[in-house]
Amino acid sequence: MQAPNLKQIAANLTEVTQGQITLYFSYQTVIAIHDGRKLYLSENVYSKTTGRHINTIAVMYGRDRTSPRMPRAEFDSLLDAIFDNGSDAFFPTLCNLAKYDSVVYQA
Q1: Would you list the DSSP string of 51-95?
Q2: How much is the pTM?
Q3: How does pLDDT run across 19-78, given as a tens digit for each residue?
């Protein structure tokens, strides 16, 4: 397996890519996931800076700064599926999130 690729996007905003999965961190918290096809944004429950980071990611993918966000609990469940079950379980988990079609964006 290839080592993850890390990229500093802005102060305290980091992109980590492993294969097709990209995680975006505000400080040490994952706030967005991109799977090569879809973008998942967490709602902001942290700080003004984290909110700006979420907006920055939305704009990077051609979305409006006010694009809908996933409730944090659902976003955390998605993260749990990624890390608990390995990346092979990631894509089926995303397919089960059809109820969030309004907050899932094609890349």
Answers
A1: HHHHHHHHHHTT--TT---B-HHHHHHHHHHHHHH-GGGHHHHHH
A2: 0.78
A3: 888 999 999 999 999 988 899 999 999 999 999 999 999 999 999 888 889 999 999 998
Q: What is the C-alpha separation between 80 and 60, in angstroms, rounded?
A: 25
Burial tier of 87 (Cβ tally within 10 Å: 0-12, 13-18, 19+): middle
Half-sphere CA count of 31, side-chain side, radius 13 A: 25
Residue type, 85: N
Partner residues linked to 23 by β-bridges: 16, 33
- For residue 106, what pLDDT is reported? 44
Higher pLDDT, 82 or 38: 38
DSSP letter at 42 equals B
Note the Cα 25 to chain centre separation in Å: 8
Triad 86, 87, 90: Cα angle to 5°: 105
